[in-house]
Design brief:
The structure is a homodimer of 282-residue chains.
Chain A (H helix, E strand, L loop, with lengths): L1 H5 L3 E8 L2 E15 L4 E7 L4 E5 L2 E5 L3 H13 L8 E6 L4 H8 L4 E6 L2 H10 L12 E5 L2 H7 L4 E7 L13 H9 L1 E10 L7 H12 L4 E8 L7 E8 L19 H6 L5 H8 L3
Parallel strand pairs in A: 6-7, 6-9, 7-8, 9-10
Antiparallel strand pairs in A: 1-2, 2-3, 3-4, 4-5, 10-12, 11-12
Helix pairs in contact in A: 2-3, 6-7
Amino acid sequence: MKSAMKLIENWFSERYSDNLQLSFRVMDQLLSVKTDFQRIDIFETYDFGKLMSIDGTVQLTERDEFVYHEMITMVPSAMFKGRPKKALIIGGGDGGTATQLLKLGFDHIVNVEIDGQVVEVSKKYFPEISKAFSDSRVRLLVEDGIKYVHNTDEKFDLVIIDSTDPVGPAEGLFNSNFYKDVRKLISNGGIVVTQSGSPFYQPKALALATSAMKAVFPNVATYTAFIPTYPSGFWSFTVASDAELKAADASWLPDGKYFNKEILEGCFRLPEFVKDLIKESK
Amino acid sequence: MKSAMKLIENWFSERYSDNLQLSFRVMDQLLSVKTDFQRIDIFETYDFGKLMSIDGTVQLTERDEFVYHEMITMVPSAMFKGRPKKALIIGGGDGGTATQLLKLGFDHIVNVEIDGQVVEVSKKYFPEISKAFSDSRVRLLVEDGIKYVHNTDEKFDLVIIDSTDPVGPAEGLFNSNFYKDVRKLISNGGIVVTQSGSPFYQPKALALATSAMKAVFPNVATYTAFIPTYPSGFWSFTVASDAELKAADASWLPDGKYFNKEILEGCFRLPEFVKDLIKESK
């Protein structure tokens, strides 16, 4: 009977390059929409629950989104001497980062997403992940994050760049002019963090992020996490600050499903080939 | 012209489950042979150089084998107070582990591989990786590793279980009876290490290895590495010893392309879901 089933199998494949792809068997495609900025697809997969891709690139799945969202929020949060309260998210239209920040006790979150349809789609298909958008502590702005950081007078403890890769709408986020503006709106001792791609398949994303941040901030550090549905399974994040970047006591911070205090110490210890990549980024 | 090319594209896919696969575009299939134990395939891929699969599972590629071979040899080596010299490898028919041990200065290596054809194929298609087999410090035995450890009187500093996953010929290696025999042949303070699968996709392999080792050794620890061509990109190794397991000075140990002293400290710091997996393994 299995061979009969195979005739009607459907797969979603993400091309990591012309020569490599990861494929998910899907029960159903729930949505495919072209917005003003990008194409959004939602699939119901067998192994990972619902999956959202943007321009053919997996953004999140129900099964493993916890790694990305814990690591982009909890690692920088653990570096504050006092407990951080105010955060700005650039991108993050799926709501996962804002929802995670609420769990950590942030009480004022501005989330600037350029593509309102990402938000709408997430509310419909990922209600748990996007639930922050119905919380009064979260202010959602559907506008260009680059313009927002240039024009706002607000100050934040933590700024999170939760963007797609540095092609398309996110390109301008991997740029020192952008970080100059970011620097003006983080409070004394504040921190900015960005996702910076797969060091293995996208070394340029990490190099670009590192260079852009080093041009503006005296302290820049890279950490990594394992995310099975992202290219190579190995992902980098880069943090920067005027203050020294090191783990604080942060006893208020709970363990997650991925994050814990051991990971906080371990995630900044980089393979030699990643250290080489960063060293080359001026 | 690109679409015309696509008509003759060939891909090798590894199925991680019925619902997930990673696919490599290949220039050519160089070999497909059914041995007494398993099927061996060799492909020339575009992104990863030559690739060997056994029973459809990627064993090594030229581009990323360094991670696995460094991490299975250098992490346990770094835990010896004196510099280790004698090693036993069970499996490892591609020669990568033995070749790496020679680089680290081991001067007596017994490599017991059950399938002589893995060795022959590796000598032909991966001459650099398998070059240890023509070195006089390496003694290759084509026989059953389980019987070998049961019968030998030799003693070793380091025993490396460099096996396929715990199905097929490697099944008996994830078993406490096997580790009872291993314990008899490691010198005082000696260490045994095994690959123990992807914590994400193969939690049973890690649980089995942990249980088998805990039944025999007082000290057992798990570490991880990122290996892009293995399922999920996130791989575990488990070490055990009668002696305390902790990083020694090991100033004799060079950095690799992946391994360095930071990674040595960081690789034992486990995500919370991996700690939970291990905790449940009695």
